[in-house]
Predict the structure.
Amino acid sequence: MRDTRSTNGTLLDGTQVEGEEPLDACDGSVIIAGDNTLTVSSGFQEPLAPRPGSLPNVTPVGTVPFNRPPRPGKHPDPERLRVPQRKEVNIQNRFPIIAVLSPLAMAVVLVMVMGSWRYALIAGLSPITAVGSYFDQRSRGNANAVRPPQTRGGD
């Protein structure tokens, strides 16, 4: 055995191995290489595997039982779901006052800040937004109307 300039060094029976000259390790010698410790042993024989069927845990049909983790208990029955009730939609066609007043307020602010009456033309948007809002709510009211529940198949 010899150490080829390893970082951690090599010990043979507690003695540092140095130089290029190989050293002999005999039966029972302890080699420490880094974090590893080896014991030299000659004549070590691993026992042979037992012949099939000779172990006491083999069943008569030739299978070997095994341990498995316990099975969890039966899960509790799931909580029954409730079918939600259909909510009735309140169909009201109301003018949102903000749709009428917001263009008027913007026109007043722009006339005051910019000092030009041309910005008062924005107030002309007020009737346009009011009419648009009216038709939008009317169409949504028809779409959201409560319809009788539909059935599947021929039920």
Observations:
- Strands lie at 10-12, 15-16, 30-33, 36-39.
- The chain has a mean pLDDT of 76.
